[in-house]
Write a structure and sequence with these properties.
By secondary structure, this protein is mostly beta strands. The protein has helices at residues 36-48, 114-123, 165-172, 202-211, 265-269; strands spanning 12-13, 28-29, 58-62, 75-79, 99-105, 125-134, 145-151, 157-160, 178-185, 192-199, 221-223, 234-236, 246-249, 252-258, 272-280, 288-295, 298-306, 312-318, 328-335, 353-362. It has two domains: 12-216, Rossmann fold (3-Layer(aba) Sandwich), CATH 3.40.50; 221-362, Jelly Rolls. It has a six-stranded mixed beta sheet with strand order 4-3-5-6-10-9. Strands 11, 13, 15, 18 and 20 form a five-stranded antiparallel beta sheet that branches. Strands 12-14-19-16-17 form a five-stranded antiparallel beta sheet, with no helix packed on it. The chain is elongated. The two termini are 29 Å apart.
Length: 363
């Protein structure tokens, strides 16, 4: 069952205007009212916690954001447009390098002079800090459409950004500014999103690259061991990792890999060879089990297991037509009628165990 990574909620409903996500799933958490972009961004910040000294950093948040927890920072100032502490990001009344962290999500499209706003936002960032910024769906279109006025049919936006937003960054920021693009996945709907980090600090850029930018390409190996990298790609349906692997939660164990910024398109066009080292849960009272491999809602292969089988490496070809025109490759390992060791009288373990995975290779 999907779980909101912001509040832990497990009930979801229609988004604004009654919409579903593009994956056909309910996008709004009914507990904290977060949407896809909030949970994707929360995932990014949870990867950075512990790697950057947030507890000693001052932050400025441009507009309230459900993804951000004020307790992370030493101090957090919040600007609310036309409300409390309203800041015009085109003319920020704050000193140079006044904040370690400046966060500005879904605001830039609301201002007339976005180049000036970008320069102003970066001006107030300290040398050890970063600016984190996002806009709605810039990689869903090639070119930005700018109509030069706030269109209230478009939520008051001056423009819809395209992939060429990165040209704006080149105009606004000097060469010594590290510019990082990070894709992430909403664990509830499987939708991908993108945000940008800008920093003068080589060490901060290195941390961001190490901790989170690694999921912007097809991983050759996804390791499910306790110290592995599988948590980057898991969306839901997995228990906590064990020493040598991870069990899926009965039903579906789901992974999602962002394809939006994969540079090696030739690799994708040939399809992907998936190999997985794993084993279905078996017992005397459950001597046989099957695992279906489903990619982007298409059944790719079914593997059958019998009592006495050991951990083995299985393979399948994922055809390019399954995912080539999508932004996300969703991989599901589906186990039918999973039982827990407790139900089978083996132990007191109440977990419904499905498929035990040690590693996946995508070549």
């Amino acid at each position: 069952m999907p779980v909101c990574n912001i509040c832990g909620g497990q009930k979801f409903g229609n988004g604004p205007g009654g919409r579903l996500s593009a994956t056909g799933k309910y996008p709004k958490c009914l507990s904290c009212f977060s949407l896809e972009r909030h949970r994707s961004l929360r995932w990014i910040y949870t990867q950075l916690l512990g790697s950057l000294p947030f507890e000693s950093m001052s932050a400025l948040l441009i507009s309230e954001d459900k993804a951000i927890n004020q307790k992370w920072f030493n101090s957090l100032e919040v600007s609310i447009y036309s409300g409390s502490n309203s800041i015009d990001i085109q003319n920020i009344d704050r000193p140079d390098k006044g904040y370690d962290v400046v966060i500005c999500n879904h605001v830039l499209e609301h201002v007339k002079d976005d180049i000036k706003a970008l320069k102003e936002l970066m001006r107030i960032v300290t040398d050890r800090g970063f600016l984190q910024l996002s806009v709605p769906d810039p990689f869903r279109r090639t070119l930005t459409t700018d109509w030069g006025y706030p269109d209230w049919k478009q939520h008051g936006h001056f423009r819809l950004y395209g992939k060429d937003i990165e040209e704006k960054f080149q105009q606004a920021f000097s060469p010594e500014i590290h510019k990082l693009k990070v894709f992430s996945i909403d664990p509830v709907t499987g939708m991908s999103d993108v945000c940008f980090f800008f920093t003068r600090s080589k060490s901060v850029a290195s941390v961001v690259k190490k901790q989170i930018a690694q999921n912007s390409f097809i991983p050759e190996v996804i390791n499910f061991e306790r110290e592995g990298n599988a948590n980057i790609y898991q969306t839901h349906g997995w228990y906590q990792p064990e020493t040598s692997g991870t069990w899926s939660v009965g039903g579906d164990g789901v992974l999602a890999i962002a394809l939006s910024d994969v540079s090696d398109r030739e690799k994708l066009e040939k399809g992907l060879n998936l190999s997985v080292t794993g084993l279905a849960f078996l017992a005397e009272k459950q001597p046989q089990a099957s695992v279906e491999l489903i990619c982007n809602q298409k059944l790719i292969k079914e593997w059958n297991f019998s009592l006495g089988d050991s951990l083995t490496t299985l393979s399948a070809l994922i055809p390019p037509e399954i995912f080539l025109n999508d932004e996300v490759l969703e991989i599901i390992f589906r186990c039918q009628n999973s039982k827990s060791p407790k139900e089978l009288g083996i132990s007191s373990d109440p977990r419904k165990l499905g498929f035990y995975v040690k590693e996946i290779k995508l070549l």
